[in-house]
Each structure stands twice: as C-alpha cells, then as structure tokens.
Write a structure and sequence with these properties.
3-stranded parallel beta sheet, 40% helix, 6-stranded parallel beta sheet, 2 domains, alpha/beta
C-alpha cells in the first residue's frame, strides 16, 4: 500500500509559487459567514499558505444572521481591492449560494465557483480549473496512476468535489459511475471499483468491506470528528486493502490550497 502524500507535493508547489509571487503584490480575501468549525480550519490553512509564499491575506467574517442584501453589499466592496476572492462554503441556509458566488468577478474567482467561471471550465476554455480537480490530477501524475481502462466510482456529486471531477473526467473521455445516497446497490457498485474518489464529508462512509483488493482510494471528503479533520474513508480498514490511498489530513486538502494559490497567480499573470 502506497500513501499518496499530498503534504510533500503541496510543499514543493508552494516553494515554486513563492518565486512566481515575488513582486506581484497579490492579495487573497476570504469571506466567512458564521462559525462552521471545518470552515475555520480551512481558512487558517489558506492564511498559512499565503504567509508562506508572500501573498497578503485578509479574512472578512460575518455573523450567521447576516441578511443576503447586506452580505452582497459587503462582497462587492471586498472584491474591488483584492487579487482573488474566496467565499468559504457552506453558507447559511437562508443565503442564496448561487447569487452570492456569482458576485465573484471572473478574473478573481480562484475557486471556479461563479456560474461564469464554471461554465468556462465546462466548455474547456478556462485558464484555471477547480483546485480540488487540480489537486487530484497532480497526485495521479506524481504517482503515475493512469485512469484509463479502470472502473472509476465517484461518491457524491457536490459542487466542490464530485461535480467538477465528473466534468473533468468526461472532458478526458474517461468512463466513470456516480454513487450517492439515492443510488440502489451502491455498495455493490463501489466494491467493483478500481478507483474510488469520495467527496461527501461523512466520516467512515467508505469502509474496508466496501473496497476490493488493490483499489485506488482518493479521499476528498472532510468533516470534524473529535475535534480533528477526518475524511470519508475509514483509513485503518481501507488501507489494508488499497494499493494507493490518500490520508486525511495530508492528502487532497493541503494540495487543494496550494493549487488555489496557483490559480491566483495564473489569474494575475496576464
């Protein structure tokens, strides 16, 4: 079993980005609404990475109770003076996600979450791709894992992981199946997979009993359990059967942050 080490790769990428960021005077802004503990951990990770490579970082925090129209006004002001803008998800249920994300200017949308940015990515003519897609692609290339002629199963089709990954795989002409909570015989489908990619955010969702010998398991999920970040995969049982596996933390997440900053530099290198 080989661990796909996202931590080491992220460090290498950040070293390169430090040189690329020199003299560019870049600033990343993150908008956080509420007190979601997982979001707070991710925000700290972005701040730490920015500090490491010399990019200014500013966090704008708003209460869970903020009204949509007030949040819209604040985001429009924030967007004027920064190089890149991240709206940290999830937002409160009372807030319209789509309307808020669409306030991110295309040239500052490092997460590729506004409709305009996402449509460009879908059409295959975007300068950047969603950071989590870039992170998984980076791991596959580093460890020379070829997805062609393999049975691939995506668990979940959320906007941050499953959906952009499904588009990316389709663009590459790679066949895959999608499993979610409404899928019949989901366990049987997962058991046949050569490659499992999960991004649901449900601890222990994927167990060793669900995975065949030699499967490649990529865990892009994240949740808080006992005050620690954990993924969707029960690492202790799945690692006994997998040929390759990502840890959480230290796998996809750290790499995603590094490649988000890579997107920031690309968008400001015209």
């Amino acid at each position: 079993m080989i661990i796909l080490d996202g931590r080491k790769l992220a460090e290498e990428i950040l070293e390169k980005l430090k040189k690329e960021a020199e003299g560019k005077n870049l600033k990343l802004a993150v908008v956080l609404v509420g007190e979601d503990p997982v979001s707070l951990i991710f925000v700290r990770g972005k701040e730490k990475a920015c500090t490491k490579i010399g990019i200014d970082f500013e966090l704008f925090r708003f209460p869970q109770t903020i009204k949509q129209q007030d949040l819209e006004k604040e985001i429009k002001k924030i967007a004027e003076d920064v190089s890149g803008l991240v709206i940290q998800l999830p937002l409160p249920k009372e807030i319209n996600n789509r309307e808020i994300l669409n306030l991110i200017p295309l040239e500052k949308d490092v997460d590729v979450l506004s409709q305009e940015a996402f449509e460009k990515f879908k059409a295959g003519n975007s300068l950047i791709i969603p950071p989590v897609v870039a992170a998984i692609d980076c791991l596959l290339k580093e460890y020379k894992i070829d997805l062609k002629n393999k049975k691939i199963v995506l668990i979940g089709l959320g906007k941050l992981v499953g959906l952009p990954l499904s588009i990316w795989l389709a663009q590459k002409g790679i066949d895959f199946s999608v499993v979610d909570k409404s899928t019949e015989n989901a366990g049987r489908i997962i058991k046949k997979a050569d490659v499992i990619i999960s991004g649901v955010g449900k601890p222990g969702l994927v167990t060793g009993a669900m995975v065949k010998e030699g499967a490649i398991v990529i865990d892009a999920g994240s949740a808080l359990q006992d005050r620690k970040i954990v993924g969707d995969v029960d690492f202790s049982s799945v690692s006994k059967k997998a040929s390759y596996i990502t840890p959480v933390p230290g796998g996809v997440g750290l790499l995603t942050v590094a490649l988000l900053l890579s997107n920031l530099i690309k968008l400001n290198s015209k």
